[in-house]
Every structure is written in C-alpha cells, then in structure tokens.
Amino acid sequence: xxxxxxxxxxxxxxxxxxxxxxxxxxxxxxxxxxxxxxxxxxxxxxxxxxxxxxxxxxxxxxxxxxxx
Length: 68
Known about the structure:
Blueprint: E1 2-6, E2 9-13, H1 19-25, E3 35-38, E4 41-42, E5 58-62
Parallel strand pairs: 1-5
Antiparallel strand pairs: 1-2, 3-4, 3-5
C-alpha cells in the first residue's frame, strides 16, 4: 500500500494507483471540471489514467469557484 496526500488528507491506495484512481477514491463523481496537480505540477486530464502515484505524493484536486 502507498500513502498519498489528497487535498492535505492522507489516503491509502494500492501500489500502481493512478491519478484517476485517487480521484475516484475520494468520491468525485463529476470530473468534468476538475484541475489536478501532482507534487505542484499540473496533470492534464488525458494523463490521469496513465500517471501513477508514488508513496508520499501530494495530489491537489481543484474545482472552479464562481461568484463575484
């Protein structure tokens, strides 16, 4: 098992887990408007299924906020 931080909360995932797996693990069903950074580097959506996570990685999942 590996430990990753997702939005500053520790999560335990299977070795070989991808960014896509991590997003699903935190229960985000609507992924159409998310931004993701892995260790402070943007990950394009078309790379989520191919980008593997490592122990102690930091994943930030962001949603747009509207208002004014």
